[in-house]
Amino acid sequence: MNLNRSWLSRDPLIFIVIFLISLSIRLPLVSVPNTTVLDESLFIIFAANTITGRPFFEPHPPLGWLSLSVVSYGLSTDKISDFRLVNGTSQSFGGFPYTRGRTSSAIWGSLIPALIYALGRMLGLGKKGAILPAVLAIFDGGLIIHSRILMPDSMLIALGLMGVVTTLFADKFQERKRYLLLILAGLFLGCAVATKWTAMAFLAVAIMAVLIRGSLLKKKIIDISVVTISTISIYVFIFLMYFNIFYSGPVDTKFSLYKGESVKALVFPGAGEWINNLKFIFSYNKAIFSMHASSKEVLALKRGSDDPILWPIFAISRNYWGPDRPYFREIILKGNIFSWGTALVSLVIIIGVALLALFR
Description:
Elements: H1 6-9, H2 11-26, H3 40-52, H4 63-71, H5 77-80, H6 98-122, H7 127-138, H8 141-146, H9 153-170, H10 175-193, H11 200-212, H12 217-243, E1 249-250, H13 261-264, E2 267-268, H14 274-294, H15 296-301, E3 318-324, E4 329-333, H16 337-359
Antiparallel strand pairs: 1-2, 3-4
């Protein structure tokens, strides 16, 4: 991979400028609105459950609300006891320090355009060519909204991009440094997957990036193995540490959105039960998979009960906030069908190129 030396001198400055411009758009008035947007009301409860060690179930990996529980430090247990599980927008935060969570999300979200620039440079684009998609990301409505709410989506995307960029950057070095960078890439990707399973798409992109490059097949297999094993190891480690926060016992259905039989059958081993918690990772992830595989209980709780396959292509609109009475102000996000269609075609082309490179 050919990168001129200017990357080491000028590109970091451009990266920082893009980040600061993004932050200047996402951070101001982050406390507005002062009621919950989209699923913020749920993540308050998830964070509160984590802080108090109260066993609960959510069909996603835990790093998202685990990080939110960290930024909510200082929240008294008396205040937490007043929280109630509510699935809806425009709800009161009830004393939860939501501005900290939104600020954290804004920082992660501001990294996304800068990381897109870095990704373009790693793919061999010139500065102007790499700046263009970064600028589009700076002003993208969906990214701006998700960067200003107390949800982990911005963190997921940023971590995934960090993993892909690091994987590409590793190709510049020989074995020892390359392996260390690939392990670091696996750390980022493992954290992304431990936020939501959809982040496995970033792992797939990183693997494609390794397959496409011009090197020996043996080297490709080793590099893919290093990234994949690192990703899985971090994923397991995060779950293991997470389960050691909770006291032993069954899922508290009063503070869990999903209450099916597969959820009621889950029993947390408790803090300090390292071996049992390691085994429990399989049971918990099996419940996540079963929940999404059937989709019945998941769909029953989604607004409008639309098929999840419609969400990525934005065949539907999502009501993020409101109506705010008496003004009836709302935040409704509608997708850009053209950009999503282009992304889908691009992904198919990348997969095709990766397969050709593998068998060439």
